[in-house]
Design brief:
With 92 residues, the chain is mainly α. The chain folds into 2 domains: 49 residues; 32 residues, no CATH class. The chain contains 2 helices and 2 strands, in the order αββα. Strand 1 and strand 2 form a beta hairpin.
Length: 92
């Protein structure tokens, strides 16, 4: 967006027209940002819902489930895994 800062030679009507054009552009940009933010919020909510479902499935499973990094450090264990080793989940 290029702005012409030479307003000295403009008439009042030309300045008002220019201001109205800028206002319309700002309204379009604001609506676009609002749409983007709304879409991001919906996507974020969907991710959180999926994470909750995943955690509920993993925690309700009787299977020993864990996730470890390449160095063998536990990143996640479910309750069944912790119980199988006689420790609380927080110890992993």
């Amino acid at each position: 967006m290029k702005f012409n800062m030479d307003f000295q030679d403009k008439t009042k009507e030309e300045l008002l027209t220019h201001l109205l054009e800028l206002q319309q552009k700002c309204e379009v940009l604001a609506a676009s940002y609002e749409k983007d933010i709304t879409e991001l919020k919906l996507e974020s909510d969907a991710i959180l819902d999926n994470e909750s479902i995943y955690k509920a499935i993993v925690e309700s499973s009787g299977d020993l489930i864990f996730c470890a990094d390449r160095d063998g450090r536990f990143k996640f264990v479910n309750s069944a895994f912790a119980s199988g080793f006689g420790k609380p989940v927080v110890d992993f």
